[in-house]
């Protein structure tokens, strides 16, 4: 379940009958959702069924400083979409931690960071698998929407220099390679952000190779246990500070 910006192109936005101005009421929408998930109050005329009394934990997912500020103000966990919009990652993390106000749900900041991770038996194989995602981002810049494409041998034969520059910026938060390479990349990202959890996207065309990628990412994450300078533990999709 989600509330807020639809996160899509204008044509899809219109097809969904979504008003872009609705994003302006997002803070009020979050508070309203919290109220509907809370126990029914005396005199409350509208009840969410099912939902009332469940107090489902809420997260704020964002790619800008606005989301970081809102999560901090409401005392909610914050997830940053750095797997496609990494430019404001460090500043957003700083704002969230500096401005955080404890709430009923959360007593201290809790951060999740998005990362693209593609693992294979060798660095070269992983980089080849990554070309599927790189082509998708080039297509996005061209306004072309299609399903994920098979990997190619040389991504530079597909995109123009300006597309490469733009797409590479969007994919800057990516870890691609063998188990050791991915382990080092995850360590660097967690050291940089002090993230409590990681959102891992492994956008591989072939299902079996995608499954294998996740297996190797899990191996890389487990291999980090006991090796960190800060005695951190990194699990699949989670990096918990001890």
Write a compact overview of the structure shown.
Helix content is 42%, strand content 12%. By secondary structure, it is an alpha/beta fold. Strands 1, 2, 3, 4 and 5 form a 5-stranded parallel sheet that branches. Strands 6-7 form a two-stranded antiparallel ribbon.
Could you please describe the fold and organization of this structure?
With 242 residues, this protein is α/β, with parallel strands linked by helices. It has 2 domains: 56 residues, no CATH class; 126 residues, Luciferase-like domain (TIM Barrel, Alpha-Beta Barrel), CATH 3.20.20.30. 42% of the residues lie in helices and 12% in strands. The strands form 2 sheets. Strands 1, 2, 3, 4 and 5 form a 5-stranded parallel β-sheet that branches. The protein has a two-stranded antiparallel ribbon with strand order 6-7. Helix 4 links the parallel strand 2 and strand 3. Helix 3 packs parallel to helix 4, helix 5 crosses helix 6 and helix 7 crosses helix 8. The protein is globular and about 65 Å long. The C terminus is likely disordered.
